[in-house]
Specification:
The strands form 4 sheets. This protein has a 5-stranded mixed beta sheet with strand order 7-8-3-9-10. 35% of the residues lie in helices and 23% in strands. By secondary structure, it is of the alpha+beta class. The chain folds into 4 domains: 118 residues, Alpha-Beta Plaits (2-Layer Sandwich), CATH 3.30.70.270; 58 residues, MutS, DNA mismatch repair protein, domain I (3-Layer(aba) Sandwich), CATH 3.40.1170; 53 residues, 5' to 3' exonuclease, C-terminal subdomain (DNA polymerase, domain 1, Orthogonal Bundle); 100 residues, Dna Ligase, domain 1 (2-Layer Sandwich), CATH 3.30.1490.
């Protein structure tokens, strides 16, 4: 670990210096930890150092790594444009033409006719992701992988301060690039929320640091939609109240936010001020299980839709049984021919892993939210509000005896 070559990303580090106190960027040399790992679980949020590592255009980067002749070319990874294929990932060269993930592949090729289309190779992506997580685990035991290409790393146990954490985060980014050949962006802050926003602000190949106490100033000029958890509809409601930036949300009357977004409004204000005490959890918890199907030809009849729901309910029940889970909330997802997507959920009185119960709840949601004859392009079913079948330390009834 000592003597590791310093790889300095062009982004530098966000810092506030100078008489105008603006955010500027500077390079920070790596600093190796000089003490054994230590961690106080009661440490204040402002004293934490949390990094978010996000692999840039991950699927495309893996393809270029394994096929160097693709470097610099616009790449689209996804389904066939001759059917109903969609874009799973686009390289930055393709994004320059307006191509985006979840876009119909045929439309993406109209935007960028010279793009190379590749079928996804998920086993390869998972293998490269595993290698990245192993690199991160060298620096801290607290690594929370949130997706195949993204993970939080709590450096608090191994860094005395934020400056030392910057060196460790630089080293992680450098090792991912040099050892594994993959580009990444890094955000470093005292909370997961601000680290996420910082990371997004510097992509691709960026390195952004927001120091403790500077969170509100960093977030203030950003559009409300930049904050994780604020979707397009919530953003529209806030903007209709004259709240277009996170700084405006942070200073708005709480009553206005609550009247606009409900109880979530009060939570949102604290988040807009940079508050987020959520910990980095090394244990991955399954929050939901879902299944969906995109049709080659739109379906506008009830019988085939009901058949799909039944098959998906069986799959979900099998997944729940395999993981020893039950769920209380069933969600139906419908996408129409014009790509309008509708999701509706219903919660039962008791958690279940029964395929029949899941099917019945999904069918009821379909009946109340789908107009007969309306073409459906995609249908999906999910189950959430999961918990273990048996509480920890509790035996199932059949093992208790008479």
């Amino acid at each position: 670990m000592e003597g590791w070559p310093f790889v300095s990303p062009a982004m530098g580090v966000i810092d506030r210096t100078g008489p105008d106190r603006r955010f500027t960027r500077r390079a920070i040399p790596p600093v190796a930890p000089s003490h054994p790992a230590r961690y106080d679980t009661a440490v204040a949020s402002k004293d934490r150092s949390i990094a978010l590592i996000d692999l840039d255009a991950f699927y495309a980067s893996v393809e270029v790594l394994e096929r160097p002749e693709l470097a610099g070319k616009p790449l689209l990874i996804g389904g066939s444009p001759r059917g109903r294929g969609v874009v799973a990932a686009a390289s930055y060269e393709a994004r320059a033409f307006g191509c985006r993930s979840a876009m119909p592949m045929a439309h993406a090729l109209r935007l960028c006719p010279e793009a190379t289309v590749l079928s996804p190779r998920f086993p390869a992506y998972r293998e490269h992701s595993k290698r990245v997580m192993e690199v991160l685990a060298r620096e801290s035991d607290l690594v929370q992988q949130v997706s195949i290409d993204e993970a939080y790393v709590d450096l608090t146990p191994v860094a005395e301060n934020m400056t030392e954490a910057e060196g460790l985060a630089h080293r992680m980014q450098g090792r991912i690039r040099v050892e594994l050949g993959l580009p990444s962006s890094v955000g470093l802050a005292a909370s997961k929320l601000v680290a996420k926003v910082a990371c997004e602000s510097g992509k691709p190949a960026g390195f952004a640091v927001v120091r403790p106490g500077e969170e509100a100033a960093f977030l203030a000029p950003l559009a409300v939609g930049k904050l994780p958890g604020i979707g397009p509809r919530s953003a529209q409601r806030l903007e209709a109240q004259g709240l277009a930036t996170l700084g405006q949300v942070a200073s708005a009357p709480v009553a206005l936010l609550v009247s606009t977004l409900g109880p979530w409004g009060a939570v949102l204000q604290r988040r807009a001020q940079g508050e987020d005490p959520s910990p980095v959890s090394a244990e991955r918890e399954t929050k939901s299980i879902s299944a969906e199907e995109t049709f080659e030809v739109d379906i506008d009849e009830l019988a085939p839709l009901a058949e799909r729901l039944e098959a998906m309910a069986e799959r979900l029940a099998g997944s729940l049984a395999k993981q020893g889970l039950v769920g209380r909330t069933v969600t139906l997802k419908l996408r129409s021919a014009d790509f309008t997507t509708l999701t509706r959920s219903a919660s039962g009185h008791a958690a279940t892993a029964s395929a029949e119960v899941i099917r019945a709840q999904a069918a009821a949601l379909l009946e109340s939210n789908w107009a007969p004859g309306q073409p459906v392009r995609l249908i999906g079913v999910g189950i959430s509000n999961l918990r273990p079948v048996h509480a920890p330390g509790q035996l199932p009834m059949e093992e208790l005896g008479a």
